[in-house]
């Protein structure tokens, strides 16, 4: 089962959680008060780079019958689409740059270069996902309505196709995101009417039509006799963007350590516990300057979930302070290489194609599914920290998880 008591799972007292929340509030205030011209230059420079790549790529494709021009144009266009999708569209529509009062770089006016209508995305992502992050039954991003990613999702016969659905979703990720607002889970449970579905699909259809006309009609037509090569380049560029976006998103949400939560946990939640849920329900991957930029700084998924409306270029700075808080409160800071995080994610997707009866470990203590019941906590330690008798240091969740792993090795 998912986590029902987040304080107990995190080995924090009520006072600990409140103190953690206050320190995270302080980080928010510091960043808000220090936003300024350097941040504005960053986003304007990012827009200039993206537009330069897009124009250069489109120009190259006028000679797309020549292989070097086709390859260069396709790569440039793919990179432009990634930057527009990740660093610009995603972050601008989160309101990260609204403080600039620039109508061109504002969440209310930005329409991104993908098939998902911005109006629908801002509801399904900004509101639903970020408010109910990893709450099973409330956050539709837990499996995107087609993947089984936690044992809290009852196994059904069609889940056997989990790895196949994963491949299809990655290939056509922009369409998966577009259809996300349809809320297939609610449709299956008959909680959403076909009339509502039809209304959503009409909005999506208009956006898909505009994207298809741009990529597969207008620009190919402009390239004259090379139109077939240009269509192939545009298809390839969209696949490049789709696979990269899919990998970044999945590595931030589904590796081991990105925990799931119950509705009961949410019912007693305040701001401090919302922060704590974001910290325990998200995962990072290690990245240098270029990879951070190309991922929209979502290599810092933990920081993004804590502060989704703060400028993405500040996440690296915020991450230093969040790590310090994790050390102070003995909380895990889930991270790893991109490849490592993806392989953990794929392992979960592959094994949860099978029913629980064929899986090892319990529904309370598996790599992808855990609850506070995974710990055999002694009397008097259930509600907070204990201290190491020799060093006096705190013994929180990070220590508890390490000791749990060590105990399993001894038993084995």
UniProtKB/TrEMBL annotation:
Which organism was this protein described from? Williamsia marianensis
Looking up PANTHER family in the UniProt record yields: DELTA(5) FATTY ACID DESATURASE C-RELATED, FATTY ACID DESATURASE 2
Q: What class of enzyme is it?
A: oxidoreductase
The source's domain of life comes to Bacteria
One Gene Ontology CC term in the entry: membrane
Q: Which Pfam families match?
A: FA_desaturase
Where's the Fatty acid desaturase domain? 69-335
The protein depicted here goes by the name Acyl-CoA desaturase
Q: Which GO terms describe its biological process?
A: lipid biosynthetic process
The enzyme's E.C. designation = 1.14.19.-
Signal peptide per UniProt = none
**Which key words are in the record?**
Oxidoreductase
């Amino acid at each position: 089962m998912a986590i029902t008591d987040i304080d107990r799972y995190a080995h924090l007292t009520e006072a600990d959680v409140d103190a953690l929340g206050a320190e995270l509030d302080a980080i928010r205030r510091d960043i808000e008060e220090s936003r300024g011209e350097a941040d504005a230059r960053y986003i304007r420079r990012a827009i200039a780079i993206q537009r330069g790549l897009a124009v250069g790529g489109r120009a190259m494709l006028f000679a797309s019958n020549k292989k070097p021009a086709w390859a260069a144009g396709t790569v440039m266009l793919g990179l432009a689409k990634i930057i527009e999708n990740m660093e610009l569209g995603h972050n601008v529509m989160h309101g990260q740059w609204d403080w600039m009062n620039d109508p061109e770089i504002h969440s209310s006016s930005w329409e991104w270069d993908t098939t998902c209508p911005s109006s629908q995305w801002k509801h399904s992502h900004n509101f639903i996902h970020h408010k109910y992050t990893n709450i099973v039954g409330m956050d539709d991003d837990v499996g995107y309505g087609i993947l089984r990613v936690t044992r809290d999702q009852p196994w059904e016969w069609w889940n056997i196709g989990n790895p196949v659905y994963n491949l299809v979703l990655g290939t056509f990720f922009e369409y998966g995101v577009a259809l996300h607002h349809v809320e297939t889970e609610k449709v299956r449970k008959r909680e959403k009417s076909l009339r509502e579905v039809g209304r959503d699909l009409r909005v999506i259809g208009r956006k898909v039509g505009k994207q298809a006309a741009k990529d597969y009609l207008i620009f190919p037509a402009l390239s004259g006799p090379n139109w077939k090569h240009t269509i192939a380049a545009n298809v390839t560029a969209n696949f490049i963007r789709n696979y990269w976006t899919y990998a970044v998103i999945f590595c931030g949400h589904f590796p081991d350590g990105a925990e799931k939560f119950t509705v009961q946990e949410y019912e007693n939640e305040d701001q401090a516990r919302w922060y704590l849920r974001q910290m325990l329900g998200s995962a990072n991957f290690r990245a240098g300057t270029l990879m951070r930029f190309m991922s929209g700084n979502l290599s810092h998924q933990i920081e993004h979930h804590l502060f989704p409306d703060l400028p993405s270029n500040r996440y690296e700075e915020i991450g230093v302070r969040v790590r310090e808080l994790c050390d102070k409160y003995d909380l895990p800071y889930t991270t790893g290489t991109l490849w490592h995080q993806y392989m953990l994610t794929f392992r979960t997707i592959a094994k949860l194609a099978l029913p629980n009866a064929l899986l090892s470990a319990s529904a309370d203590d598996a790599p992808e599914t855990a609850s506070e019941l995974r710990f055999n906590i002694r009397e008097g330690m259930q509600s907070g920290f204990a201290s190491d008798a020799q060093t006096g240091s705190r013994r929180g969740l990070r220590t508890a998880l390490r000791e749990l792993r060590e105990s399993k090795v001894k038993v084995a």
